[in-house]
Amino acid sequence: MPNPWLLLLIAGLLEVGWAIGLKYTQGFTKPLPSVLTIITMIASFYFLAQALKTIPVGTGYAVWTGIGAVGTAILGIVLFAESSALPRLACIGLIVAGIIGLKLTSPT
């Protein structure tokens, strides 16, 4: 079986993709972005499910959502000119610290 942490990373990156994709679907009114977003959602859940065969569910889910939250926030800043205020960046940093902490304390 491939490294479950690599599978979880892929799942998290795909989560970023579908979260950003939601913006482009305009409420699922645009067919192509909608289909691509749904495919990305399914792929993200698939890789998450594969990773959770080995990684504890609480850890895996928290890391998956953390990767999604950090990646989506960063792309929101880059793509959509969302706030890059220092307190916001500090909070993103705290999420990253939590992801690292969960990985370091995981038994797998």
From TrEMBL:
Domain of life: Bacteria
Transmembrane segments: 31-49, 61-80, 86-105
Any one cellular-component term (Gene Ontology): plasma membrane
A Gene Ontology BP annotation from the UniProt entry: xenobiotic detoxification by transmembrane export across the plasma membrane
Keyword Ligase annotated: no
Any one GO MF annotation of this record: transmembrane transporter activity
Keywords for this protein: Cell membrane, Membrane, Transmembrane, Transmembrane helix, Transport
Main location: membrane
Compartment(s): Cell membrane
Membrane topology note: Multi-pass membrane protein
Similarity comment text for this entry: Belongs to the drug/metabolite transporter (DMT) superfamily. Small multidrug resistance (SMR) (TC 2.A.7.1) family. Gdx/SugE subfamily.
UniProt name for this protein: Guanidinium exporter
Organism whose genome encodes this protein: Microbulbifer hydrolyticus
Lineage, highest ranks first: Bacteria, Pseudomonadati, Pseudomonadota, Gammaproteobacteria, Cellvibrionales
